[in-house]
Automatic annotation (TrEMBL):
All copies of domain NIPSNAP, residue ranges: 7-99
InterPro entries: Dimeric_a/b-barrel, NIPSNAP
Organism domain of life: Bacteria
Protein name stated in the entry: NIPSNAP family containing protein
Amino acid sequence: MITCTLRYEIDPNQVAAFEVYAKAWIHLVNKLGGTHHGYHLPHEGPNDIAFCHFSFPSLADYEVYRKNMWDDPECLRAYAHAKETNCIRRFDRSFTRPVLTGATVDELGL
């Protein structure tokens, strides 16, 4: 499994517009085969930074999603919304391999 993390710099005057965009992409990622872990909008601290995390079984599956999203009318409408509202100033994308299960220190041999 790979997880994509997006760090957004958003317009603090367009948080509501960004939240609309976020809700659309939660639906879209899930529709196109991923598992969305949600968006995290500003609350305390910087008022222009937001994050989202979503996973795919593999990088190859993510690449299929990236290809398919450009042919999906809903995805194109979500992108158009972001462009029209200028709610996103910039973003950075990174990939990680999540560790999702824990173990006791005895099980780990610590």
